[in-house]
Write a structure and sequence with these properties.
single chain, about 350 residues, mainly beta, Neuraminidase, 4-stranded antiparallel β-sheet, 31 strands, about 0% helix, about 55% strand
Length: about 350
């Protein structure tokens, strides 16, 4: 008896044959990847993935650019436009409001405002430097709300607030120190009148809660600390903030219900698991949280049905997702931006668990 192997649409079929009889045995080997795009120029060092309609916005750190891809056909993502500027170096921060994109340039400390109405012909609307004279250390993540950009400056350990209502003349209206320790401001997530600022790179890190009801006069309300808390980058769904804690192979669920100047959010659930392999972002669909796992070169899946006891479900790795930083999830799909893979990879999220 002889065995012949054939691969057909991701399924391994082993045929056992004799002169008069052939049997077929099917072994499942299908990949959850439905589409991918590798582009060493336009996707060089993908930092994040943001979705809007049929488009994916990918700020690229090493490529010093914003690239927009069509994801209308998930099996064939395509680059439709790229924006570059002399003051745009390592792109680490991004926010989108309608047809306006806001970009944080890590080393040059610029906020750039870009019209993305026509992805093939993006154009600069305005820019402003975000730092004090002689300041060092990078700008990192940012958020947009109601005509203002909220930007984290790691080196200065501050949250900066920029008035962008006149896109041609953005200007800084306020800033506030979020830590005086060894950590630095990293990520900003908005929740009503509050900016939640996660810190990173310190022996001890925190989530600072800042009241920004008056953008020109931000006020520190308080902070959360925990041995596993770092970065605090993720997604708010209803009254819960699902975050990745990169250096600790951990994720957290932070309860925001009733948050006010006198009531801080609190940590509701924690999962520490080496299989999370340095999670760097968090997206949520239904009762699942998805993480790009940097050391695992893939995606981690966590069951959040019970927010108090999140449970690791599975992970999936592929060379296409080398050092994944960006991740977004929507409907049936998970979209992964791989920084070292220079790639956008689209996976069927249900197939991840088969």
């Amino acid at each position: 008896m002889r065995a012949v192997e054939a691969v057909f649409k991701g399924t391994l079929i082993i045929l056992f044959g004799t002169s008069c009889l052939t049997h077929a045995a099917v072994v499942f080997a299908a990949s959850p990847i439905v589409g991918s795009l590798v582009d060493s120029e336009n996707l060089n060092g993908v930092e994040d993935v943001f979705l809007n309609g049929d488009l994916a916005y990918l700020p690229c750190r090493e490529g010093h650019c914003l690239t927009i891809c069509s994801i209308k056909d998930p099996s064939q993502p395509q680059v439709v436009g790229t924006f570059r500027d002399p003051d745009l170096d390592d792109v680490t921060g991004f926010a989108l409001d309608g047809n306006t994109a806001y970009l944080a340039s890590q080393s040059s400390h610029f906020l750039l405002i870009v019209d993305v109405t026509v992805p093939e012909k993006m154009k600069l609307l305005g820019k402003v430097r975000i730092s004090q004279k002689g300041s060092t250390g990078p700008l990192y993540k940012m958020a947009y709300r109601d005509g203002y950009c909220y930007m984290s400056h790691q080196g200065e350990k501050k949250l900066y607030i920029v008035d962008v209502r006149d896109k041609s003349r953005p200007h800084v209206v306020g800033n506030i120190q979020v830590t005086t320790k060894g950590d630095g401001a990293y990520c900003v997530t908005m929740n009503g009148d509050y900016a939640l600022v996660g810190t990173v790179f310190g022996k001890s890190n925190r989530l600072a809660v800042v009241n920004v009801a008056d953008p020109a006069h931000p006020r520190m309300v308080g902070e959360l600390t925990d041995p596993h808390l770092s970065e605090a980058i993720g997604t708010i769904v209803d009254d819960r903030f699902y975050i990745a804690c990169w250096p600790h192979n951990a994720m957290m669920v932070i309860n925001l219900s009733g948050m006010s100047d006198t009531r801080l959010p609190y940590i509701e659930g924690v999962l520490v698991d080496p299989r999370l392999s340095k999670p760097n972002r968090c997206a949520v669909v239904g009762n699942r949280a998805y993480f790009p796992i940097i050391a695992g070169h893939g995606v981690g899946v966590v069951d959040i049905s019970d927010p108090a006891t999140p449970r690791f479900v599975t992970s999936y790795s592929d060379p296409l997702m080398k050092k994944p930083y960006g991740l977004a999830a929507r409907g049936e799909y998970v979209f992964v931006g791989a920084r070292a893979g220079d790639s956008l990879v689209i996976l069927n999220r249900r197939a991840l668990e088969k």
